[in-house]
Amino acid sequence: MEPEIINFAGMFERSINLKDPWHVKRAEFDERDKAVHVYIEGKKTSKYECPTCGKLCKRYDEEDEERMWRHADVVLYPCYIHCRRPRVQCEEHGVRVVEAPWGRPYARFTLSFEGYAMLLCEHMSLNEARQALRVSRNALLHIVEYWVNRAVNEDDLSETRQLSLDETSFKRGQSYVTIVGEPARRRVIGVEEGRGIDAVERFSMDFEARGGNCESVSEISMDMSKVYRAAVDLCFPRARVVFDHFHVKKMVLDAMDRVRQEEQGKTYARSRQAGKKLLMIPGIRMTEQQKERHAAICKVYPKTGRAYRMVQLLDDFYRCYTRQEARQVLKKLTGWMMHSRLEPMKSAARSLRRNEEEILAYFTNRISNAFAEGMNSLFQAAKRKARGFRTYEGFRIMIYLAVGKLQLSYPNPFPC
C-alpha cells in the first residue's frame, strides 16, 4: 500500500485537528520574522454553534480583527495560527463570536502547544521549559496553572478520612506554605500559602468543594504547633489530632542538643569534633566506629550521655505495639526526664505530658507525616524546578506535579 501524500496545508489541518467547516486557507514562511504563519477560515455557508447555548446558528459575519495563536514549532521555527472567527446570529443570545476549536477561550496558544508545554513541565524545570518554548514566565505559568487547577478541581476527595499537615518554605525568608497530605494514598492534596489558621481554613473550603466532608475526617497528623491545633479544632471538629512522631522526636533531640551545648560550652559545641551529628543517629544504626566515638563523647560529657539515652527510650516508645504499653513507656520516660536535673529535658518532658493524648493517638492507626517527611527530597526538587519563577504559584504547581498524583487531562501534543 502506497503512503498517503498530504500537502503542506493538509499537514497543519491534521496537527490542529481541523474538521469541517474549518480549513487552512494558506500557510507561509516569513523570512523577516523567521516564523511560519498559518491562516484558517470557516466556510461562509456553514452553520456554527452558539458559544453560549451550543445551538447551531447561521453565520452572521466575522470578527473585525484577526486573532493569532501560538502553535507548536515547525522544524524549529515558531508557528502562528491566524483567523478571523465567524460570528453567528443566535435567536436567544444575539450575535456571538464562535470559539476556535484549536484553542481555549481567551487563550493565546493552541491546545497542541499547551499540551507540549505541560509535557515539558512534567520533566524539567519551569525555567528550562520556558526557554525551550520561547515564551514569557507569565505565559507559561498561566498554561500550567490552568491544567493543574483543572485536575485539582476534578480530584474527588469524598473518600478521604485521614489528613496530614506540614509546612515548608518555598524561598528564603519567612515565605511558608502549608502542605496537606493524604497518608492513605501517599500524595499531596492541598498547598496553601502561609502556615496559620487562614491557610487551613482555605484548604477546608477547597476540600469540601472537591467532594470532601470536614465532619467525616477522623484523624489529622501534624506537628505540635498551637496554631495548627487551633485551626484543626475550628475546621475539622470531629478529627482526632495525632502529633507526628518525627516532630515529637525533633523536640526531644533539640532538648538533648541544648544539654550538649551547655555542657561543652558554646565555642566547642559548634566545632566538628563536638559530635552533634553523631548524637542524632539512633544507636541501632551506628557503625562500630561510630559507637566507639559515641562512647568516648558520653564518657567526657556524662550529662549529654544521659540525655542521649532518654532519646533512645523515646525510640523504644514508638516501637511499642499497643497504646497501653506505649503509655507505660511514656510515663517512665517523662519521669526519668523530670528527675534528670537537666532543665532542657525537663522542659521537653512537661511538653510530652501536656500533649500525652495527642502523642498516644499515634498508636490507634499509626498515622503520621512519614510519607511527607520521606517526600522532602521531592519537595526540594519542586523548589529547584520552580526556580526562576520565585512565586508561590510556581512552587504550588511543581508540588502538585511532583507528588499530587493528579489525573492531568491536557491535550496530546502529538497528532495521531
Strand % is 15-25%
Query: Would you count the extended β strands for me?
Result: 13
Average residue-wise pLDDT = 88
Major beta sheet summary = 5 strands, mixed
Helix content range: 40-55%
Outline the low-pLDDT stretches.
Answer: none
Radius of gyration: 30 Å
* Class by alpha and beta content: alpha+beta
Shape: elongated
Distance between the termini: 19 Å
Number of helices: 18
Strand order of the largest sheet: 11-10-9-12-13
When the domains are counted, the total is 3
Question: What report would you give on this structure?
Answer:
With 416 residues, the chain is an alpha+beta fold. It folds into 3 domains: 8-102, no CATH class; 157-243 and 369-374, Nucleotidyltransferase, domain 5 (2-Layer Sandwich), CATH 3.30.420; 245-365. Helices cover 46% and strands 20% of the residues. The protein has 18 helices and 13 strands. The protein has helices spanning 8-16, 111-121, 126-133, 137-154, 197-209, 226-235, 245-264, 266-269, 276-279, 288-300, 302-318, 323-338, 343-354, 356-360, 362-365, 370-374, 376-385, 392-403, and strands at 22-30, 35-42, 47-49, 56-62, 67-74, 77-83, 86-90, 94-97, 162-171, 175-182, 187-193, 219-222, 240-243. The strands form 3 sheets. The chain has a 5-stranded mixed beta sheet, sandwiched between helices. The chain has a 4-stranded mixed beta sheet with strand order 1-2-6-5. A 4-stranded antiparallel beta sheet has the order 3-4-7-8, with no helix packed on it. A hairpin with a 4-residue loop joins strand 10 (175-182) and strand 11. Helix 5 (197-209) packs parallel to helix 6, helix 7 (245-264) packs antiparallel against helix 11 and helix 10 (288-300) crosses helix 11 (302-318). The longest helix has 20 residues, at 245-264. The protein is elongated and about 90 Å long. The model has no long low-confidence stretch (mean pLDDT 88).
